[in-house]
Amino acid sequence: MTLALQLFGKFRLTADGRDVPVRSRKGQALLAYLALNGERAQPREHLATLLWGDRFDDQARRSLRQCVFGLRKDLGDDAEALRGEQELSLGLDRVDVRDFENLLAEGLPASLERAVTLEAELLLAGFAIKAEAFDDWLERERRRLRALAGDARERLARYHLEDGDFARAAAEAGRLMAFDPLREEGVRLAMRAAHAAGRRAEALKLYDTCAENLRRDLATEPEPATTRLRDAIRDGAPPAENRPDRGLDLPGASVLPRPERISIAVLPFTNLSGDVEQDLFAEGIAHDVNLSLSHVQDFFVVSYQSSLVYKDRLIDLRQVGQDLNVRYVLQGSARIAGERVRVSAGLTDTKTGQRIWGERYDRALGDLFALQDDLTREMVTALTSQLLAGEFARLWLRSTDNFEAWFYALKGSEMMTRWTPATAIESVDLLARAVDLDPDFADAWALLGFCYLTVSMLIPVGTVTRKAAVEDIIERLFRDGPPRPRALMLRGWNHIYQNRHAEAAADMELAVAQTPRDPAVRFGLGFALCGVGRFEEAEQHVRESIRLNPNYPIGYAGILARTLFEQGKEADGLAIWEEIGRTHPDHLPIPIRLAAEYALAGRLGEARAQAAEVLRIDPEFRIATAAPWYQSVDPKWRMRLLEGLRVAGLPE
Q: Which among 12, 35, 13, 10 has a CA at the least distance from the CA of 2?
């Protein structure tokens, strides 16, 4: 059950999308206040004063009791969300205001766009009750959120201006000016966008309008920065941007060469609990992550003291990258809610503005300091694995002097993970271009061979020719000196597809010994071990490949599910397939597997529903066309799977 609260615009409480009527206006006010206080428990005395401050204490407390009773009646089966007796808190799955704040914390253009869309309407628009303390609080919250939305629009306008999208920059600056006509940063951004688009007269007119508004409403003149920009545009000089003071004392930092190692800054984590006493916990996690990362040999980590300047500030992450001279920035937030601790973290590439890793951790409270250590260890492990795995592209670049060949190989490798006939064929074309450009690019040859094997699984026609091509590539790779890990991996996969699993496992073990941190090689070993019945070991290797590559292809999860099925953990294996199905609803292999597994588990209704999904995605699907997909695995397992498809009702 998903319990969600909408506070932008009209009050709306829903359970799985179904409206939950809250009849009392004071009840709505109480839920809104609890929701916006970060699930931190509020004393009844405070709530009674907030909502019934015009009454005597006993009357106020009685009114609060009646309100809480009515709310729990309105909530029905979800009444447990309103927790506590002497202190009250509210446990919700979603609150749109929290979504808004989390998107702002991410700081990426797409996140900011979604944030300002959420905040398009006023907080609790048209809502007021006869309670002075609550109405004052509501007005403060409205001003705070509107100010945050204004900051977001300013950052969006700056992003678009820096990217050369002057039309979108002008549009966003215009919205900022409409929101707050006296906010001169918005005026300056609109002037810059107009000037950059060649509309000099419009830029100067914007200044005149701003000056007129300031004189009329505030009896003051424009800021010096605005006047300097007007003068620069009028005189035809390229206007230099006046960024707000960031409180940094880093002379020349922006022109320093980037460190050769992976460079990262850990920014102070945001405390979302609404309780200033929990600042120490959020700070402690950020500090410990920073310290632990600084001990990783391949990382250059900026001192945490340098990052503290950004605490509690809305920031431009690309500018942070320039200021601190780092490629990556880690941001996060922490919240203690009841007996749970929730920590979120995200890693952003400051050069592209793209978020390349993110994770949420939800733990029982327990020993706070032991929990802090555990979270730090998990986060550093994931970050180290993600960044070092992400740097494999650099390692590839070292194996060829031809940049264009490297690019095609990297693109082909990425395309191959999508696992569809069309993308498999495209990956073959891309990798073929790579080896044409650099015939000595061994890793690209190995991936090309693997692509041929993949296409053979997805498209049976032409399999004989592709298998011959794979044998030629293997011969080539083993002809010139000791084999590289990817060559061993290719030969191992070729053994798998020919049901020679012992030989496959031997090759994969050699490959893992050479490059234990390559997730693809370790996954190959896990797959090969399934073929020789070593499922417990296979599970460990697949889990390790997932740890090494948190953005793993869904095939990793599928093989993990298989190892669990083979160890008698059917429920766990099926849960993985169900989760994959939720995240990849149109990926054909998923409903195929779910149809078979549900049928074999005797859940015929669900099996037939998944069979219908198979035919929705591919109306021409037949069991005979699916059989070649599973030709490389154990015959008994293959026959069991195909029988499940028949029981599910799929056509032969």
A: 13
Instruction: Quickly list H helices, 219-331.
Output: 224-234, 279-293, 304-307, 317-324
Packing angle between helix 554-566 and helix 535-548, nearest 10 degrees?
160
- Helices then strands (H, E): number in the chain? 29, 13
DSSP classification of residue 8: B
CA dihedral 644, 646, 651, 652 (to 10 degrees): 110
Task: Report whether pLDDT(647) > 60.
Answer: yes
Cα dihedral sign for 191, 194, 197, 198? Answer: negative
**Cross-strand partners of 43:** 87
Q: What is the mean pLDDT of residues 530-536?
A: 85
Q: Mind giving me the DSSP string for 410-473?
A: HHHHHHHTT-SHHHHHHHHHHHHHHHHH-TT-HHHHHHHHHHHHHHHHH--TTHHHHHHHHHHH
Handedness of CA 349, 355, 356, 360 (dihedral sign): positive
pLDDT at 400 over 80: no
pLDDT grade, residue 423 (50/70/90)? Answer: low
Strands 87-90 and 82-83: antiparallel
Determine which of 25-29, 188-192, 331-335, 552-556 has the lowest per-residue pLDDT on average: 552-556
Which residues, 6 or more positions from 14, have their beta carbon under 8 angstroms from its beta carbon? 3, 4, 5, 6, 20
Phi, psi (rounded to 5 degrees) for 346: -145, 145
Which pLDDT band, with edges at 50, 70 and 90, does 286 fall under?
confident
Work out the end-to-end distance of the chain between its first and last CA atoms, rounded to an integer number of angstroms.
39
Spatial distance between the Cα atoms of 122 and 100, rounded to a whole number of angstroms:
13
Residue 608 tokens, joined: 């037939």
Taking the C-alpha atoms of residue 89 and residue 336, their distance in angstroms, rounded to an integer, is 12
Question: Which positions ≥6 away from 120 have C-beta within 8 Å?
Answer: 8
Separation CA 549–CA 603 (nearest Å): 34
Q: Residues 18, 254: contact at Cβ < 8 Å?
A: no
76: left (phi over 0), alpha (psi -120 to 50) or beta: left
CB count in 10 Å sphere of residue 132: 11
pLDDT of residue 10: 92
Q: From CA 55, how far away is CA 542, in angstroms rounded?
A: 64
Q: Higher model confidence: residue 403 or residue 358?
A: 358
**DSSP designation for 356:** E
